[in-house]
Amino acid sequence: MFYIEIGLHHVLDWKAYDHILFLAVLTIYYSFKDWKKVLWLITAFTVGHTLSLALSAYNILYIKIDIIEFLIPLTILITAIYNLIIIKKQPKSIKIITFFALAFGLIHGIGFSSYFKIMVNDIENKALPLIEFAIGIEIAQLIVVLCILVLNFIVLNILNKSKRDWIMVVSSIVIGIIIPMIIERKFW
Hints:
Helices cover 78% and strands 0% of the residues. It is globular and about 55 Å long. The chain is built from 7 helices and no strands. By secondary structure, it is mostly helical.
């Protein structure tokens, strides 16, 4: 249960809002009727995140944190820009976006791996903490995505705003938040 809570707090911590921004730009196109696609996306992200934690926890993978701290907001920027590029149409291939989610999950997981590695360092069987942490991540992402889908519903169905405009506004706001973060975290 401890690691589930850590996973929940990892995503829902307002100080570490990068997950929330990524989930926002990743799922802004979707509505409740697309719940299966959205579930695949966030699960792919969790799988990538958990895989990189596992590789780090078992001392198989190590990447300098400075590089990862730069890549995390870069992945968010790429996703937001992708939204603006395909703004006129629904993403044609969920496979491409799912690949983004998986790959970006790997990068985001590496960003948390040093802390996680310290937590499980003295534990011989690291599988259970990894699974519990992944469950916490998935639950937290479901909470965030549910909020995004509710907000999408309100903006698009109750306020009758254009989906194109809504995606442009959200993606542009995220870009405006992320660019200073990228500049601040440059590693060269």
